[in-house]
Amino acid sequence: MRAGPSQEDIRRHNLGTLLRHVHLGGPISRAELTSRMGLNRSTIMALTSDLTAAGLVREELPRETGRAGRPSLVVRPESARVYVFAFDVGPDRLAVARVGLGGVILDRRESVRRRGPFDLTELTGELAAAARQMRRKARHDAVCVGAGAAVSGGVRRSDGVIRFGPNLHADEAPFGEALGRRLAFGLPVSVGNDANLAALAEHSRGVGVGVRDLVYLHGDVGVGGGIIAGGHLLGGHDGYGGEIGHMVINPGGGQCACGSRGCLEAEVGERALLEAAGRSPEEGHQGRDAVRNVVDAADRGDIVAQEALRQVGDWLGLGVANLVNLFNPEMVIFGGMLREVYLGSAAQVRSRMAVSALAPQREKLRLRTSALADDATLVGAAELAFAHVLADPLEVLARAGG
Amino acid sequence: MRAGPSQEDIRRHNLGTLLRHVHLGGPISRAELTSRMGLNRSTIMALTSDLTAAGLVREELPRETGRAGRPSLVVRPESARVYVFAFDVGPDRLAVARVGLGGVILDRRESVRRRGPFDLTELTGELAAAARQMRRKARHDAVCVGAGAAVSGGVRRSDGVIRFGPNLHADEAPFGEALGRRLAFGLPVSVGNDANLAALAEHSRGVGVGVRDLVYLHGDVGVGGGIIAGGHLLGGHDGYGGEIGHMVINPGGGQCACGSRGCLEAEVGERALLEAAGRSPEEGHQGRDAVRNVVDAADRGDIVAQEALRQVGDWLGLGVANLVNLFNPEMVIFGGMLREVYLGSAAQVRSRMAVSALAPQREKLRLRTSALADDATLVGAAELAFAHVLADPLEVLARAGG
Q1: Count of structural domains, chain A
Q2: What is the pLDDT of residues B239-253, one digit of tens each?
Q3: How far apart are the C-alpha atoms of A143 and A114, rounded to whole Å?
Q4: For residue B1, which residues of chain A lie inside 8 Å, CB to CB?
Q5: Do residue A335 and residue A387 come from a single domain?
Q6: Domain that holds residue B236
Q7: Closest to B54 in 3D by CA, of B19, B10, B7, B104
Q8: Do A219 and A355 fall into the same domain?
Q9: What keywords sit in the KW lines (chains A, B) (predicted)?
Q10: Which end of chain A is flanked by fewer CB atoms within 10 Å, N or C?
Q11: What is the tens place of the pLDDT at every residue in A138-197?
């Protein structure tokens, strides 16, 4: 319960808000900014001048206006100049991208990760080497203003330690600090849970733009989630919130990697689907392609695959019903491999929800699939890195030497 | 993404913040307000003058300071002058209270409600009559600034309609509007779900003060809940959030009043406990006393009662584990009849949580019982009514004719 903000707080807030419009919405005229931000023209001009001088945006005459009179200048993000690094560490994949202000992926590299032991030194070495190569290829005046990483596991918000990551075989791994040291860019690395970050990405750039209350379900090998409540990511006390994969829905059910039984992950995760479809999930018969094969086989009339999807869809519907009762979201988004599973079992999901989700919670609910697909986690990692810049644009840029 | 606030917004915010300190924290010196709000002395003096002139607070010399020098004036809420009405409609009880600024219960009345059909006209008539009597007994210069009601059911935030209330036998009942009309005080009645409001009450005046992330479980006949995430009540898109009683945890389990099976309510609600203890929940053997009898019997060594509590405690532990995984709260609070159930089965709850709650989520978690006990819902209803006053103190008081 502190008092109102100072003039300097207000200026910083306005600079961040203006930059956020440009970063998330793309090129926008000064006139439009004036109207959206509810500030007068001279204030908008002063703010854009400050951001232009710092090299965060540039102002240009629009190509065509179709209207008489002096056209309003268009403010564009300096995407090629101001960028962050985004990292994604999944059970089956490593990805690194250089992402410019405005969300433009300027450069990216992906590699297959073999399931197996988690070697922090090797992993962070590989990620840092890729980032350093990309950095050398960047424009000479380009400025790196941050780094963010999405990892498949529970991450302590305060220091980026992976507390538990059964699907990465990681446990108490000081990932954020190790990656920061290997990068040696003089920048901290912000680390988040991959499903949490994918939820943020869908909320800021995907199917959930403008939706203040949404639940995002992320299927990879396991099942994770991210909750946007009242426009903000639900992190909980230490940042572990949103572990929807470890909500028990079938207490007599399958063993889960977390040690419990009948978690949502144990009933709708990759292994559950492949086993139900009679495809033993061994090396070579696992991952996203194996999941797609089951959905495709069901489409072609394979009865075993259809029954597997029916079974998994029923549990998925029950899990979603619980989440809908708890969160009363406007939208539920299926991402990662659950995108395919939902598309292959939507009728079953809806029919189960009709029984187990309360009617008022269901009536305005929209079920959607991820718009960013396999980029959601990487885009979310970039947004995590940009969050610092949007909170205090000039200060962050000055510190980065821009 | 609007711009920063105007000077008038800041003043209103500061008036509300100062009044909130006095309302929630009780009498406080100007010096302490200066330090807590981070404003200078002359601003605090101007704000308290405005609130004093409006009759919301008064300033007095402290009784003793124990220090030399001129003592700082103490700001007190005008509890006897500025008040709200709070209503509580539970399955077994009706309560009406006149609650003064600062949270003082000035007058209250309770009556037993017989389980059975929901008669909106009779119910709102009885509540309004009690409120009008209390109003006549109030000080001649007292000003009613709001009314809030807690009801056992899902309430649409926008208009106070009870959308579903199986334990009240209410369905699509326009309760808020009907009560407002019967009161005829010229004030709207804000209506909320009883468990949501009890959560708010524990967060503002109970065991959860200062806890930004908490889960409150409320047992009455059914099971409800309220989630405080990042310091705010999680309402969801339409205000139906927090229906933890209808999270399915045992898909093959008991029939629930909502139409689904194996909901938390069906496994740990009053009926589940009484049936497990071999006490058929008929008229005369139900309600809070019947629940207490089972817990007392278990304490005295009754093996059937002990086994019933063990069984219900196991399901309760599983439900709480799910909530802990989803919300990563700092505190879980057991309220209503779940207070007794938890006290009688804490070992079982904790042992189930050790299996099904993720370790990082568990390590700082505190399990607590409600501090406000059976007053939690009523106190929450009062806080709902006061929320308008704290948002814009002078305007609300002027409208109320104060």
Answers
A1: 3
A2: 999 999 999 999 999
A3: 33
A4: 17, 20-21, 36-37
A5: no
A6: 209-370
A7: B19
A8: yes
A9: Kinase, Transferase
A10: N
A11: 999 999 999 999 999 999 999 999 999 999 999 999 999 999 999 999 988 999 999 999
